[in-house]
Specification:
- By secondary structure, this protein is of the alpha+beta class.
- Among the domains are: 119 residues, no CATH class; 62 residues, Nuclear Transport Factor 2, Chain: A (Roll), CATH 3.10.450.50.
- A four-stranded antiparallel β-sheet has the order 8-9-10-11, with no helix packed on it. A three-stranded antiparallel β-sheet has the order 2-4-3. Strands 1-5 form a two-stranded parallel ribbon.
- The longest helix is centred in the last third of the chain and has 13 residues.
- The relative contact order is 0.12.
């Protein structure tokens, strides 16, 4: 699996295609080359919570249907993956979490992709791991490694961070949660004000407590002129001298619900 920065590699006689062609020559037809392509901007954004209703309606009205075989790779994933995708002999999986694969194991790797936790069990990355695949970085650092999402999805550790949104979307792992919050606060929440009122604090032990808040949110661009009300229930525990949230639920209240 390759992550590459064509700019960092520098000028190559014959153009960027020569980079993946050189790798194929080393691997031979028995080997397999894989890169992460993703999908173009806005294709997988409806229902994720950081667009206004008007923006979502416009996307549904104007954005062409996603075609995994012709859609461009996500720009943030670099230039080389698009050269590989459009080169004869490459294959892709039919999913917005899209990989480009070439070589002896291509058909097996792109055979299936789960709709939930698309980087986890049963995914391209899962089969890649089972084949003892190797990762090559060309001019990139470890922050660009897509395989890190596989570890986030499958690891079973105490206190693992998972956020399920009102929309039904799931943020799994610290990176996904931080990126998701950053996206909504740059867009639909950018002018919002949230107020919390403590309703209950019950200690269930010296190092554990249940906390309940009443919350109001105004200036959400998806609900202009409305106040969105919810109740949060948190379970907090004291670890290494610090109180931390171990579990939480944020339930949106109906407009008719009394405070």
């Amino acid at each position: 699996m390759v992550h590459a920065s064509v700019r960092a590699v520098g000028a190559v006689a014959g153009g960027p295609d020569q980079i993946h062609l050189a790798l194929k020559e080393v691997l031979s037809p028995e080997g397999t080359l894989i890169m992460y392509a993703g999908c173009p901007a806005y294709v997988d954004e409806v229902g994720r919570g950081h667009l206004t209703p008007d923006q979502e309606r416009e996307l549904l009205e104007k954005l062409p249907a996603f075609d995994p075989f012709t859609a461009r790779a996500q720009r943030e994933n670099g230039t080389l993956v698009e050269f590989l995708r459009t080169y004869p002999g490459s294959a892709v999986n039919q999913h917005v979490t899209r990989f480009v694969v070439w070589g002896g194991r291509a058909s097996d790797l792109v055979s299936n992709q789960p709709r939930n936790y698309a980087f986890g069990f049963g995914s391209v990355l899962d089969r890649f791991a089972n084949l003892d695949g190797k990762i090559l970085l060309l001019g990139c650092d470890h922050d660009n490694v897509t395989f890190l999402h596989y570890a986030e999805h499958i690891v079973d550790i105490p206190g693992k961070r998972v956020v399920i949104l009102w929309t039904g979307d799931v943020w799994k792992g610290r990176n996904a949660i931080e990126e998701g919050h950053a996206a909504v606060h740059k867009t639909v929440f950018r002018n919002s004000i949230q107020r919390e009122r403590l309703e209950e604090l019950t200690f269930v032990g010296p190092d554990a407590a249940v906390v309940r808040f009443y919350s109001t949110l105004t200036a959400d661009e998806r609900a202009p002129g409305k106040t969105i009300r919810s109740r949060k229930i948190l379970i907090v525990t004291k670890r290494a001298g610090e109180w931390k949230v171990g579990w939480g639920q944020n339930t949106r209240l109906a407009d008719s619900t009394r405070e």
